[in-house]
Amino acid sequence: MITTNDAWLRDEHGRALILRGCNLGGDCKQPYWPANELAQRERFYDYKAASFVGRPFPDAEADEHLDRLARWGFNVVRLLVTWEGLEPAGPGLYDEAYYDYIERVVAKAAERGIRVFVDPHQDVWSRWTGGDGAPAWTLELAGFDIRNLHASGAAFVHEEAGDPCPRMIWPSNYNRLATATMFTLFFAGDLFAPSLRMDGRDARTFLQGSYLAAVARLAKRLARHDAVMGFDTLNEPGDGWIGWSDASRLVRAMSKTGPMPTPWESMRAASGYPVDVDVYGVRWGAQRPVGRATLGQSGLSAWASGRDCVWKREGVWDDQDGSPVLKKPGHFASAGGKAVEFERDCLRPFACRVGAAMADAAGTGRYLLFVESVPNVEHPRWEPDDAAEARAAGIVNASHWYDGLTLTLKRWTGFLGYDTEAGRIVVGPGRLRRYFAEHLGRLRSRGAADMGGAPTVVGEFGLPFDLNKARAYRTGDYRLHEKAMAAYYDALDANLLSGTVWNYAAGNTHARGDGWNGEDLSIFCRDERDAGRSETGESADSGGRALRGFARPYARAVAGTPLSMRWSGSSFWLAYAPGPDLSAETEIFLPGFQFPSGFSAEVENGAQRAEDVPGGVILLIRADAQDAPVRVTVRRNRPAWTCPLARLRRARRSGTMRP
Predict the structure, then answer these.
(1) For the chain, which terminus, N or C, has the lower number of CB atoms within 10 Å?
(2) H or E element that contains 232
(3) How far apart are CA 313 and CA 336, in angstroms?
(4) What is the DSSP string of 636-647?
(5) How far apart are CA 376 and CA 142, in angstroms?
(6) H-type helices in 131-226, by residue range?
(7) Which residue from 371, 350, 351, 382 is spatially nearest to 451, judged by alpha carbons?
(8) Range(s) for CATH 3.20.20.80 in the chain?
(9) Rounded to an integer, what distance in angstroms lies between the CA atom of residue 497 and that of residue 18?
(10) Distance from the Cα of residue 399 to its chain's centroid
(11) How far apart are CA 246 and CA 535, in angstroms?
């Protein structure tokens, strides 16, 4: 069993674990159909017929994909499931076939020594609000007509808008009416919409209760699989309008892209009163208004027939002489005469409820709780007096990090970035790499300072592979992607951090990417596999993209406390302080393709041995004494000289020749 006693994840032997793996996978956001095509309108709205069995991959392909992950040295996957997949058709109507399927995937991962933590995933609430996660019936219980959300301006939905999907438009849905309303109800419906009842209960109690019941049911099923480490609370939860001081202003946004309405503009547009709103884009190195657009259609409501806007019923606004009038602009700032803070009053209590539900389902201490936060906004805090509570709950800081400029612009320069927290441009190759390391260091520090000394696992980070207008898809040359990915992993190494890259999508293709909102961040591509392209020369690795950037040496289990770790591209260094058990061995994974002519290892204050594993070698180190650090150096052997013409012929035969 893994513990979190001292800001490290430690295994049953007391070794500090460094977890490296992937999110499995990006196309789990959508129901399974054989190709990641855009769903047609009627299929999209027939939510009761949807099935997620086959996500992340069909049963027949499971061995192929999991073998590939093991070859790349991954020792963990963040396994995506959705509330919709668990409970698609209505409250309490669980898809037993999906539960069975998830259990089969977990069992196969365990056979390969791959640990799992389960991510109940969502983005901007649901598929019908431009993302994924919650079932459609949650929206209907709130009073929405899901077929009118896009046309009324309550959401931007790719399936309604068609191709091409505007770049990174989906985050703007956090500020649209449907998503903002649902997250406000989910986290604080009892405070801000007390008149709305769902099965006789307030919206928060009902929605959170349904979510927790579905996830806890899965936790109980998976408790017998030792490979399952724990559960996320909820991927990148939204804070809705909770705490907003003025509904007539754009107080905050996860990302200002495309039309960005204020809450009041959202309410009007979605009730049939079209409104002109600011359109945001990137100008002069920042997100700024670049134009205006109209949201909504006259007389078209996002609300179902016979249902008024929930915020109109709560007195936030009303009609006067045929025109909408804002009555209570500060409605979301306080409740019962007390200011409401999302992190303190909503997010942390929710995380505690998830932890309690997991304990009830599988027993106290069975699962780690990977606590998520709102990107770029807030994260839960445990005060110093609560540190013991956090440790007892097995809390892990599961924050996410992205190189925002590269993600948004889909260009990698190697010298230009944007610090989202400081709000400044970072210029220069050295400064950029230092910023990456510093930002990830901030995430780790928050886990230590604000979450009772919790260890950190960076739950998401990644790279769009359609950089520079998808040039690599035509050339097969992913060297630029390797440089970017290596910079991210260098930052992880500098902070001795665990992380799961976003993502491995088994259905990824050049045409449809990850199959969701135009994103294409998968480290695997079916088209590359089917073309037989392999960056390592091994057919088992075909389909992998930018392998040299992420499939690299690392210490996966350290018999003591890690001090430093670095990979230069040809040499690897590790230093650690030995633990009290000198019989425990440190494990270092060395990918075979990174050492084509073998390696030589030097160990100070320790002995070494090696074991072959799929895809490479595990170097095992045992310390000689506890009173001095162990230092390990691994160098790539130089290849024997061969005729350049012969090397060229071999490269052509193996398919590894660069364009």
Answers:
(1) C
(2) strand 228-232
(3) 18
(4) EPPPPP--HHHH
(5) 28
(6) 136-142, 158-161, 177-192, 203-222
(7) 382
(8) 16-242+337-550
(9) 7
(10) 9
(11) 54
Rounded Cα distance between 636 and 597, Å, is 7
pLDDT at 652: 56
Amino acid identity for residue 607 in this structure: A
60, 441, 549, 567 from 428: Cα distances, Å: 47, 20, 20, 21
- Which residue type is seen at 359? A
Euclidean distance between CA atoms 384 and 450, whole angstroms: 8
Asked if residues 393 and 355 have their Cβ atoms less than 8 Å apart, the reply is: yes
Question: Is residue 575 within 8 Å of 630, Cβ to Cβ?
Answer: yes
**Tokens for 88?**
């698609």
| pLDDT at position 296 | 95
Q: Please tell me the predicted confidence (pLDDT) of residue 425.
A: 87
CB 358 within 8 A of CB 367: yes
SS3 571: strand
Strand, helix or coil for residue 541: helix
pLDDT score at 640: 75
CB count within 10 Å of CB 523 equals: 29
Second CATH level (architecture) for the domain 561-636: Sandwich (2.60)
Q: Is 470 helix (H, G, I), strand (E, B) or coil?
A: helix
Q: How far apart are CA 493 and CA 480, in angstroms?
A: 20
Q: Report the Cα 504 to chain-centroid distance in Å.
A: 11
The CA distance from 88 to 66, in Å, is 27
If you write DSSP's letter for every residue of 413-428 in order, what string do you get? -SSEEEETTTTEEEES
Looking at the chain, which residues constitute the CATH 2.60.40.1180 domain(s)?
Answer: 561-636
**Which pLDDT belongs to residue 658?**
45
Residue tagged active-site, from 87, 159, 236, 482: 236
Q: Which two tokens stand for residue 145?
A: 């007509």
d(CA 324, CA 301): 13
∠ CA 214-219-222, rounded to 5°: 130
The architecture in CATH of the region 16-242+337-550 reads Alpha-Beta Barrel (3.20)
- Residues in the chain, pLDDT under 70: 285, 376-378, 383-393, 641-659
pTM passes above 0.90: yes
- 6, amino acid identity: D
Which of 460, 482, 528, 587 is flagged as catalytic? 460
Question: Is 611 an annotated catalytic residue?
Answer: no
Angle between helices 467-475 and 479-494 (to 10 degrees): 120
Which residues contact residue 627 at a Cβ distance below 8 angstroms, ignoring those fewer than 6 apart?
none
Q: What is the pLDDT of residue 124?
A: 97
Q: In this structure, what is the dihedral angle of CA atoms 334, 335, 341, 346, given to the nearest 10 degrees? A: -150
**Residue 460 annotated to the active site:** yes
pLDDT value for 76: 98
Q: How far is CA 590 from the centre of its chain?
A: 26
How far apart CA 258 and CA 420 sit, in angstroms, is 18
Residue with tokens 């106290």: 364
